[in-house]
């Protein structure tokens, strides 16, 4: 049995290579790169942040629950703007909980104590409201987690009526499923909900300490979990999210950790221990992973802050690289990784011109260097990282039509 150490990050084995290949490969656990926020009501401060979402540009939207507002930050945690106040008018909130962003950038908020879901433009302009208090069709009792599927349908975890409610893009009621209980397909205060790339609906069934997987029509597919501290067990799971490869991430609130699973629910890894230091948690609630599974952002609830992690492999490259005879250009290692000011890249290439470039997650080129390779021996290049913001970067080597890449995490 794996036990927690006093380190803030727990080593793990990830089932699948970084580049999406299938072979199993030991990799580094997610690396803490950013913390922002403190207790309060000013810009950039929080009172019990409950959830967080990431838009296409890497901006972060945070549900600031007890301040009854949503705050927007850039990818480095710099405050941009906010909207919301205590009330029940359009654009106001009463203890909001969940958030999600659709493919067009619109923002959906679970307005928990107003028993409704509100939809906003990316700048916070109210567009739509659906739901009202009750247990009838289209009604909600304390909506928490929210998800939007590819068709634009809105799925809501109706926390205190123990069911999932599905609305059409225009807010019209479509269907609901679930009832109170611990049998398969039933719920005890479902809190988080997400839709994976295959269209399955995953629910963090909080008081049953499990995750349940359904079709989009509400038919049960599988479930896993149970109460406990062992890997794959939970103490009030709050949120569940997936990346485009189907990997699942669950915030395990009172075990003060995040757990990662395969799409089938097999345990992969965990990280986090109780505390207030970087990489530690005090009852993490909402969290979000980007589509690549490279950036994970967590609402560290009782610490009144947001923490950001990036996934980095031990070598920085896929273990499924073809042999040199078939692909002479390769990146052998990046060290150290994560790095602060300088990283050394070791690579092999055919004789001739070689270009190395470093890109951020938005695809912007941050560094570029050219080399003339004289032989096929492995070579080293030093990258000056002092002008870069903390985060995850892609190193790309190109020689003619051949390319190789690696991930690099920059920390401060």
UniProtKB/TrEMBL annotation:
Keyword annotations of the record: Repeat, Signal
Keyword flag Hydrolase: no
Ranges for the NHL repeats: 33-76, 84-123, 127-170, 178-217
The organism's place on the tree of life at top rank: Bacteria
Top-level taxonomy: Bacteria, Candidatus Eiseniibacteriota
GO MF annotation terms: zinc ion binding
Organism name: Eiseniibacteriota bacterium
This protein's name: T9SS type A sorting domain-containing protein
Signal peptide location: 1-26
Gene3D superfamilies associated with the record: TolB, C-terminal domain
